[in-house]
Write a structure and sequence with these properties.
Layout: H1 12-18, E1 27-32, H2 34-43, E2 45-50, E3 61-62, E4 72-78, H3 85-91, E5 98-103, E6 114-116, E7 120-131, E8 140-150, E9 152-153, H4 157-160, E10 161-162, E11 165-168, E12 171-174, E13 182-183, E14 192-198, E15 204-207, H5 210-216, E16 228-232, E17 242-245, H6 251-264, E18 269-271
Parallel strand pairs: 3-10, 9-13, 17-18
Antiparallel strand pairs: 1-5, 2-4, 2-16, 4-14, 5-17, 6-7, 7-8, 8-14, 11-12, 12-15
Length: 278
């Protein structure tokens, strides 16, 4: 597909026709450590990390906004039901951690995601999250989460480095629908799905003035302050939690995970790894 970068590419048509997404997953998986599992369950929250703090330094660049990656928070998942050794190795504490599985509608209120024309899927939660910035830049308050949407893998700069601002008749249209939705093909083995939260509302319109150009878009002088957001999970979603032990998880890890589940998610299912490895 040839794309010239003059309009948003992550649309419902792109998802269906190019990426071949027939439906959104009902269950998502995340590889992590037993300690992280305990933090998630004890707090009943899910961490969204700011994109400029994740492991891919090329994430979410923009042609016209410096440090754009610092304006987006993400929670990264896989929809692949079968265990993946590279994921265990990179994220699952070197095969000694856990893989958690949760329903896609895991957040407070259990709202189902809806696919929109631009930006893919979006859902609302029965809680509010706030993203603060250094004054005088405005804070953002929202109950919306974008996703879950599948990451597109490409080395084409037209996809990787996007324009975010479109100007017309004194109005600036901020359109970061594609921001944080493309990664290089060397990451394609992850087949990642992600939720994201943005510091500036998608599709927002601003007066094309000094405040917008010299404050709102200046993430260096007026940075986003938190490095992470913690979004509440619906307690009922933890009843559907599955936890798979890593292929190299020993008895101590298994005992720890059993204790965590007994304390925080007694209805969760604990599953041994199906991968055999020395």
């Amino acid at each position: 597909m040839i794309f010239d970068g003059t309009e948003e590419f992550y649309t419902d048509d792109f998802m269906f026709d190019v990426m071949g997404i027939e439906e959104l997953p009902s269950v998502l998986y995340q590889y992590t450590s037993a300690d992280s599992l305990e933090k998630i369950l004890a707090s009943r929250t899910l961490r969204f990390s700011r994109l400029d703090t994740v492991n891919d330094p090329e994430e979410a660049t923009a042609l016209d906004v410096a440090l754009a990656s610092s304006s987006v928070f993400v929670s990264c998942w896989s929809a692949t039901e079968s265990e993946q050794l590279p994921m265990w190795s990179m994220y699952g504490q070197n095969l000694c951690g856990v893989r958690i599985g949760l329903p896609t509608n895991m957040f407070c209120g259990r709202k189902e995601p809806v696919i929109f024309e631009k930006g893919g899927a979006l859902l609302t939660v029965d809680s509010w999250h706030s993203i603060t910035r250094k004054s005088p830049a405005m804070d953002t308050n929202s109950c919306a989460i974008i996703g879950p949407n599948k990451v597109y893998y490409s080395n084409d700069p037209a996809y990787r480095n996007r324009r975010l601002v479109y100007r017309h008749s004194g109005t600036a249209h901020f359109c970061p629908y594609d921001l944080g939705m493309v990664k290089g093909t060397h990451w394609s083995y992850e087949q990642e799905w992600r939720f994201k939260i943005a510091a500036l509302n998608f599709g927002a319109q601003f007066p094309d003035d000094d405040y917008f150009n010299k404050v709102t878009l200046d993430f260096a002088a007026f940075p986003v302050e938190p490095e992470a957001l913690f979004i509440p999970l619906d307690p009922s979603s933890l009843d559907q939690l599955s936890v798979t032990l890593g292929p190299k998880a020993d008895d101590a890890v298994a005992k720890k995970v059993k204790r965590i589940l007994a304390e925080h998610a007694p209805k969760a299912t604990l599953i041994p790894s199906q991968i055999r490895i020395r």
